[in-house]
Amino acid sequence: MDRENKVLNDDDDIESYSEKDMDERIYSQPLLTKRRNTTSQIAIVGANACPVESLDYEIIENELFKQDWRSRKTIQIFQYVLLKWAFALIIGLFTGLVGIFNNIAVENISGFKLLMTTGLMLKHQYYKAFAALAGCNLALAAAAAALCAYIAPAAAGSGIPEVKAYLNGVDAHSILAPSTLFVKVNGIGSLNIFSNLLLLVIFTLASCAFDTASLIGQGGSRKYHLTWKWLRYFKNDRDRRDLITCGAAAGVASAFRAPVGGVLFALEEAASWWRSALLWRTFFTTAVVAMVLRVFIQLCSTGTCGLFGEGGLIMYDVSAAKVSYSVPDILAVILLGVIGGIFGSLYNYLVDKVLRTYSLINEKGPAAKILLVVTISLLTSICSYGLPWFATCIPCPTDVSSRCPNIDVSGNYKSFQCPPNHYNDMASLFLNTNDDAIRNLLSTSTSKEFHLSTLFIFFCAVYCLGIITYGIAIPSGLFIPVILAGAGYGRLVGRLFEPITKLDVGLFGLLGAASFLGGTMRMTVSLCVILLELTNDLLMLPLVMLVLLISKTMGDMFNHGVYDQIVKLKGLPYMEAHAEPYMKHLVARDIVSGPLITFSGVEKVGNIVHALKTTGHNGFPVIDEPPFADSPELCGLVLRSHLLVLLKGKIFSKDRVLAGDELVRRIFSFDFAKAGSGKGVKLEDLDIEDEEMEMYVDLHPITNASPYTVVETMSLAKAAVLFRQLGLRTCAWYQRVRGGLQLSES
Fold this sequence. Notes:
Blueprint: H1 19-28, E1 53-54, H2 63-71, H3 74-122, H4 126-151, H5 160-167, E2 170-171, H6 178-193, H7 205-217, E3 220-221, E4 226-227, H8 237-256, H9 259-270, H10 276-304, H11 327-362, H12 366-386, E5 394-395, E6 422-423, H13 427-430, H14 434-441, H15 452-469, H16 479-496, H17 505-521, H18 525-535, H19 541-556, H20 562-569, E7 599-600, E8 602-604, H21 605-614, E9 619-624, E10 633-639, H22 640-649, H23 660-666, E11 696-698, E12 709-711, H24 716-725, E13 732-737, E14 740-743
Parallel strand pairs: 7-9, 12-13
Antiparallel strand pairs: 1-2, 3-4, 5-6, 8-11, 9-10, 13-14
Helix pairs in contact: 3-4, 3-6, 3-7, 3-8, 3-10, 4-6, 4-12, 5-8, 5-20, 6-7, 7-8, 8-9, 8-10, 9-10, 9-18, 11-17, 11-19, 11-20, 12-15, 14-16, 15-16, 16-17, 17-18, 17-19, 18-19
Transmembrane segments: 85-105, 126-152, 193-216, 243-266, 278-297, 330-350, 370-391, 455-484, 505-532, 538-555
GO cellular component, one term: plant-type vacuole membrane
GO molecular function, one term: voltage-gated chloride channel activity
């Protein structure tokens, strides 16, 4: 059951379809396709078409591996353990630094843009104010798009779907490259600057940390001369996965200043395989992130970071509001959960359609990608600057006269074009950084600050803009637009229920954000903890839990979570934690693909080369036959990558004899270590003469003698769950027949 071998409709003739048919196929099939099926003649119903390779998370217990561990000294084992914790420290430090410096860039450059816009408006130079706002947004958007389009196309998007796929065992192309890390870091800085575009992509810090962890786990980069001898211990998919899990948790912790939420995010949403040692390491990493953020926030509180003002790890503190609720409040919360589930499922459906449409545009080349980004940027600038003109100026409340109207770069009660002692409530939401807009929506004791019409227009605008801005060629995410939209309609519902409820409208904004997050992301535990760490109000825990459960349940009735949909859209073969219903009616032998290809314990070189050329299998069963065994029996499983290394070493013999000791002396375990992406030995690298094709090679030293196997009568549902929970790439099944074992395709 090789994951990369699941292919649908590979033999379809493209020329036989009309243009209309092709459009329909594009809108119904994954974006990634594989035109040739080299491994399987049977396609499983519902399988994803995917050309990418899977990862070998399983420990290959062959003779070379055992010899390597027996020969390691105590100091080498100590180095290995020490490096694991050292890398967790490095990932935490780097991610924390990226997060704090991007925040400083946002506050300073975005603040400069807003100050310039506000200054021109005070002089009644409204057209120049719009030109300044839109010009800054266009320039920065084009810069971020150019980085993505020309340097690292894989950096586009939030990166969370790729993280999920990788930690599920899929080696998605180019997501681990250093260029991707470079573009994500710089693209985040650029995009965060034009905050009004609703493209706050700090959530992609998880992806940045993911790329950093991957670069370390690959043993560095030979291309960029970043290698180290000690890193050879981590040249395997299993240790890389652990580091990348730490990176994903650190990214979320840095983005939302939520260290515990980051750990739970990696556990609930990202990783499909977990153990207690990994829990400790991710917790340590997020703790380092929290400490780095705390230190720099404390330093910046003295005014040394420009417009980056005072603050702490709590981004939106709502703890000042009195939390007291009764039956009407519970009914309102239930309504919020239902609305969040419905709006969230519709949001996911529309994002899917928009992504498929954008894929047609992005295929036209880098220029088309940049043009699309510039168009969306201009549209968002028009909405941000134009919609506040339709709002009515509101007299300043007497209790806030000292800070109303506001002509500063942030905060609420924005003056915009209003006369003295009046403010524009819509400008307080649109002409602000996204953080400040969320802070205004969650602010307590300001129930009359926003009109109902303002909240409705803001929700509709953010909802639509959030949909059309995801999928363009920039490192942008969905988390902040979803929070903005959810907080908008949450506060709107709070205003409507104000006569019968005791909860503050700011708390309704928090619950609305939670409901929309649950309806789109379909996470519960991690979202609950992240929101509580963001807002510092444990008294809201029961209501947040309730609204998340209801919204997730409602959303699941219509479609999958947004990241699961994007994974499927990209064609990445993500395996769900549960088996599909149809699998309960099948057994393992029902999905076997053939013909069966096996090797003898001592195999002819020509047979191995022929099998590698004619198939794309990752693993091959090795069977010992007489004279090496009394009857045919399973010796183990040998990997394709290990066969290529062995053939390149040319440890052949003219006779069909065992040569294990000689092979162990001439080839070391590190020769079979996992190379960086695309750097391993390929079939084209082999230079085998014709006379060598008739020679023999002993496969025993590189054969995994304890592969996972299932019997032919095991239900497909049980086999699929086993396959995912153990993090397998290959799983062989067998049936007992007269005379020994009859192996079937892995």
